[in-house]
Amino acid sequence: MADYILAVDQSTTTTKAIIFDKQARLIGRYDVNHQQIYPRKGWVEHDPVEIYHNLIEAVRQVLKKTGIKTTDIIALTVTNQRETTVMWTPDGKPAYNAVVWQCARGESIVRRPEIASERDYITTATGLQLSPYFSAAKAAWIKENCGVSGKLMFGTMDSWVIWNLTGKHVTDYSNASRTQLFNIHKLCWDEMIIQLFGLQDVAFPEVHSSNEVFGTTTVGGIFETPIPVAGDMGDSHGALFAQQCWETGTGKCTFGTGGSVMMNIGTRPLMSKNRIVTSIAWGLSGVVEYVFEGVIICMGDTIKWLINEAGLIKNSAESQTFSEMVDSSNGVYMVPAFDGLGAPYWESELSAMICGLHRNSNKYHIVRAGVESIAYQIRDIVDPMLKDAGIPLKELGVDGGPTNNAFLMQFTADILNTRLVRNSVEELSALGAAYAGGMAVGFWKDRRELTALKRVTDDDYVRRMPDVEAENLYDGWKNAVNMLIQGSKNS
């Protein structure tokens, strides 16, 4: 049997090819960045053709870098940025650039009376708050504005990648559940919602379990003998699976460009009363499990703003050192609504704000306020999530690049009053999808075998800040957010 499995992680900024061995150890990785396209304020696009070419290059280079033979790879598995929407013609030509999850151009579409009047039905059927964040409004915008006549094919980035690799138009339950077009109760595309968004003439992908074989590929001729494309999960779902949050009440937070807080709620789709969304965690061999989820639009993106636009720090490592240069943010709060705020606010047209500046405020206070905003936004989600679930959260698994920031991890534990557990594997989204694909092709037998492969760091982050101080800081954050929202309504 082959000794390795190849995971492709198509993320917001890069396409990665990652090789794992049977002990779930990361053997090699190669990243290729793609262009971020900003046609106007609030709009974000990617070139899907560029991304697929980058995928081929990443696979070629990771094999070269590791010296692993193509015959030693058992399968290729896919994880991806969610909600980002591609529409293409049957001959494989994109009708338009991919409209990225951060993009708010669909705001006017979700406000149309015929759609807004069905808000309750849409939320109940899909588990998602009506928002341009999800794929439905993005697809409607593309169809109405691309200028392409004839049949169009719809997909999230996994569908686009797998279609190019195999010629099969498919997706998995986790990605389908993030489109706002999929009925999470009936487990099918919702014809009423599809018609509301004017997409009834569009071809939708077949929805499969996350641990299926979808087809075979040579990855652009790199493999002489085609290998299976097996396993598909949205990135946050892959991380949840790799964190082994398989029991009801277990949860994780992925720290990336944006953020995702998820809690496993079992095999029944509970509905939130507090503007938290319900999604499908995954489907394994036909059995679907559900999650509560809250999305943070700007997480690592806030650090990038501090580097690239504000010029206050040179790299992400300085976000920790600058934060530790001062004892507090000195009353400064940053609400990083560069692309609006996600759960539980769902305010897509806000602008970012820094408030609480004093004569003695300096760049260290501002940087610290930016870092602290990440923890506050996580609590904005965790509090209503626990209220909806009616169960405690004993600990929160964390993953992603920003978890290397020890200050951020400790401050998050202080604000949440929850123990944080950091997985020692950096590429958890890819590992989760690899687990699913590996089970599909017999690389791993079942979840019981995977349990022995979990690795966590020795870091132990628990609340060390006095309770009163933590609650006062969080109250200040809520006041800042309310000030921003009310100000936007009055302007």
Report what the structure shows.
Helices cover 35% and strands 23% of the residues. The protein has 491 residues and is α/β, with parallel strands linked by helices. The protein has two domains: 232 residues, Nucleotidyltransferase, domain 5 (2-Layer Sandwich); 210 residues, ATPase, nucleotide binding domain (Nucleotidyltransferase, domain 5, 2-Layer Sandwich), CATH 3.30.420. The strands form seven sheets. The chain has a six-stranded mixed β-sheet with strand order 3-2-1-5-14-13. It has a six-stranded mixed β-sheet with strand order 17-18-16-15-21-22, sandwiched between helices. Helix 11 packs across helix 12 and helix 12 packs across helix 13. The longest helix has 27 residues. The radius of gyration is 22 Å and the shape is globular. The mean pLDDT is 94.
Q: What tags apply to this protein structure?
A:
single chain, 491 residues, alpha/beta, Nucleotidyltransferase, domain 5, 2 domains, six-stranded mixed sheet, 16 helices, 22 strands, 35% helix, globular
CATH fold topology of the largest domain:
Nucleotidyltransferase, domain 5
* Largest sheet: number of strands, sense, barrel closure: 6 strands, mixed
Helix content: 25-40%
CATH superfamily of the largest domain: ATPase, nucleotide binding domain
Q: Report the sheet-strand fraction.
A: 15-25%
- Shape summary: globular
Query: What value does the average pLDDT take?
Result: 94
Q: Nearest-angstrom radius of gyration?
A: 22 Å
CATH first level of the largest domain: Alpha Beta
Poorly predicted runs are none
CATH architecture tag of the largest domain: 2-Layer Sandwich
Question: Whole-Å distance between the termini?
Answer: 64 Å
Number of strands: 22
Number of domains: 2
Q: Output the structural class.
A: alpha/beta
Identify the strand order in the major beta sheet.
3-2-1-5-14-13
Helix tally? Answer: 16
